[in-house]
Amino acid sequence: NMPVVVLVGRPNVGKSTLFNSIIDSGQKKAIVTSISGTTRDRSYGTATWLGRQFTVIDTGGLLGLNVRHQDPDVIVNHIRDQTFVALQEADVVIFMLDVHEGITTHDIEIARFLRTRIQGREEKKVVLVVNKADNVILKSEETLKQFDRLGLGSPLPLSAVHSDGVADILDRVIEDM
Ligand code: GDP
Ligand code: MG
């Protein structure tokens, strides 16, 4: 049974771009697009880092977590349900944000859920990643400190399109495997 790593975060932050760059070659890639909400279901892949192999699950992106609230858009509900299924399977959760967007109310809601349920009750590791940090200013401590208030530790900067920052993230992911 391989460890399971799940990618969550709002649509368009770059989850599928990271998924595609870390999965072992020869597997089906996730769709990357600037159109939000393209991944409706979960995409599975396997990845290897420093000789350790794990399953990676790309999700459709979380807009909100209140399961009792049924969104008028059935697709939104479906994506959220699919993401919950993925979180149940997770050993490690990568929570991704977009440096240009900063923290939204949705992110605060997701962070609280990850802190209390995933990190707290289920004792799973949560790795906070700030993507689209494409230059030195965007990945500076000065820029990243705003994300500390999510209560998930200091974020790791990433530029998924340039595969810059991937090594540090995967080091953290496999730390306790
Ligand atoms: P997802 O919805 O979270 O899966 O996001 P995608 O991986 O589909 O990416 C959404 C958009 O963000 C696409 O247009 C990507 O090319 C773009 N994107 C992804 N990673 C980066 C990055 O590191 N820097 C920049 N500037 N754009 C990125
Ligand atoms: Mg995607």
Strand order of the largest sheet: 2-3-1-4-5-6
The number of helical elements comes to: 5
Q: How many strands in all?
A: 6
Radius of gyration: 15 Å
Biggest sheet descriptor? 6 strands, mixed
* SS class: alpha/beta
Helix content: 25-40%
SSE series: EHEEHEHEHEH
**Unique ligands:** guanosine-5'-diphosphate, magnesium ion
Contiguous low-pLDDT stretches (5 residues minimum) are none
Distance between the termini: 12 Å
Q: Name the shape in a single word.
A: globular
Overall mean pLDDT stands at 88
**How big a fraction of the residues is strand?**
15-25%
Overview of the structural elements:
This protein is an alpha/beta fold and 177 residues long. Helices cover 31% and strands 20% of the residues. The chain is built from five helices and six strands, in the order βαββαβαβαβα. It has a six-stranded mixed beta sheet with strand order 2-3-1-4-5-6, sandwiched between helices. The longest helix has 17 residues. It starts with a strand and ends with a helix. The model has no long low-confidence stretch (mean pLDDT 88). Bound molecules: guanosine-5'-diphosphate and magnesium ion. Magnesium ion binds next to helix 1.
What is the structure about, briefly put?
With 177 residues, this protein is of the alpha/beta class.
Features:
binds magnesium ion, 6 strands, alpha/beta, six-stranded mixed sheet, 177 residues
Which helices and strands appear, and what pairs or packs with what?
Blueprint: E1 4-8, H1 15-22, E2 43-49, E3 52-58, H2 74-89, E4 92-98, H3 105-121, E5 125-131, H4 141-144, E6 156-157, H5 166-174
Parallel strand pairs: 1-3, 1-4, 4-5, 5-6
Antiparallel strand pairs: 2-3
The structure holds guanosine-5'-diphosphate (GDP) and magnesium ion.
